[in-house]
Amino acid sequence: MIREIKNGTLYFDGCNTVDLAEKYNTPLYVVSETEIVRRFDELKDCFVNRYERTRVAYASKAFSTLAMYKLCQREGMCIDVVSGGELFTAISCDFPAQNIEFNGNNKSYEELEMAIDYGVGRIIVDGLTELDMIEEICKTKAKIANVLYRITPGVRSDSHDYIVTGRKDSKFGIPLDEHILYPYIERAISSPCIDFKGFHFHVGSQLHDNSSHLQALDILLHHVTEVKRRFDCEVQELNLGGGFGVTYTDEERKPFSYFLEPMMEKIEGFFAQEGMKRPAIVIEPGRSIVAEAGISLYRVGQIKNIPDLRTYVSVDGGMTDNIRPALYGAKYSAVIAGRADEPAETEVTICGKCCESGDILIKDLLLPKVEQGDILAVFSTGAYGYSMASNYNKNPIPAVVFVKEGRSEVIVKRQTYQDLIKNEVLPERLTVAEQRTR
Ligand code: LLP
């Protein structure tokens, strides 16, 4: 068990969370290595080791750190990156470039150049001028790029609007208009610098129903047939994206096999029937690898009781370390780390310390009577918490600690105040403390 309560205190991957808060200070991201490895093991059992020519490319936007990339490498996982910054981070710790897939709807020329120089394994083309840039770069460098096309399948998904990506009205993917898609595919197939590998889709995130993946897959398979018919080209690879939902409060997390088994069944059936070799299959889970592997620890500060209305419990972090409640209305659950077994009978609202009324982490949470100085542990914050953190109000970004079977170590140091100003430049003319008179 990753979460345990011993003598009333919450333990996470064997570590006493009150002691972690004491040792590393708060706010603190705590990430369980055991839980991440367990997710990878689940994927190995039901996917990678079960079907030939399959890969997992962890979508590192969910949590991108050197330690995480190294963990992926040790576990034999590929990764997906979506920016020069993520790519640089992975390469900085010697992550093998050929195991990197590069996504993104507006990759810059410089980012593509960097990816081609490093020799990333796949570039997922997600725009109608991207191919020109890739070709130009490859021509000058005498390289060949392995390319997949991200299509917009035009399916509905049941998730927050901001994290639905597969519907027709989306900034992501190449539209399925035959006058746009097929000439663009033909160009890739006939280009000497491009190895056109196949298609990619990503329908959305935090999904608990497999229907949009299955619908998107049907659409994708239709285009596989068309590419064979029109260009006599058999695709070598399909990437089915990520999006598998996790538990934040009471959502039931489905096993990976719930999504993967029916998709693989459909794929194997389709290619057997068409008499084509089944292409390699890649998935890109992000959230489902790291979300539940993370908790956030905060220290309780001011408590404001508005009689007959609401009790605001302020913590020393907020929307700067977890933007998800403010941005998506995301729900979380939490306990008081040192009194995790006490009956939760008081309804409170957990708010952050930013100068925003929207800086609410958890509305109407039941807790035991809270006191200033208590440590609050918020669950399932491992995905898109640290990676979306900001310095709003000049708050330093908290430290990240990896925990494993009772041991803990810092993998990202807490920012200092000095870090907050290290890129700032004070123009000389303003250094003179002279007041303008008018
Ligand atoms: N592949 C592609 C091309 C993606 O765009 C994404 C997520 C993933 C894979 C991974 O999806 P996941 O398995 O994590 O659901 N910041 C938002 C989530 C944005 C997801 C964007 N794309 C949040 O905090 O909910």
Automatic annotation (TrEMBL):
InterPro entries: Ala_racemase/Decarboxylase_C (IPR009006), DAP_deCOOHase_LysA (IPR002986), De-COase2_N (IPR022644), Orn/DAP/Arg_de-COase (IPR000183), PLP-binding_barrel (IPR029066). It is an enzyme of class 4 (lyase). The modification N6-(pyridoxal phosphate)lysine is found at residue 61. Keywords: Amino-acid biosynthesis, Decarboxylase, Lyase, Lysine biosynthesis, Pyridoxal phosphate. Pathway: Amino-acid biosynthesis; L-lysine biosynthesis via DAP pathway; L-lysine from DL-2,6-diaminopimelate: step 1/1. Residues 35-291 form the Orn/DAP/Arg decarboxylase 2 N-terminal domain. Pyridoxal 5'-phosphate binds at residues 243, 284-287, 384. It catalyses: meso-2,6-diaminopimelate + H(+) = L-lysine + CO2. Substrate binds at residues 287, 324, 328, 356, 384. GO terms for molecular function: diaminopimelate decarboxylase activity. Homodimer. HAMAP family: LysA (MF_02120). PANTHER family: DIAMINOPIMELATE DECARBOXYLASE, GROUP IV DECARBOXYLASE. Belongs to the Orn/Lys/Arg decarboxylase class-II family. LysA subfamily. This is Diaminopimelate decarboxylase. It comes from Filifactor villosus.
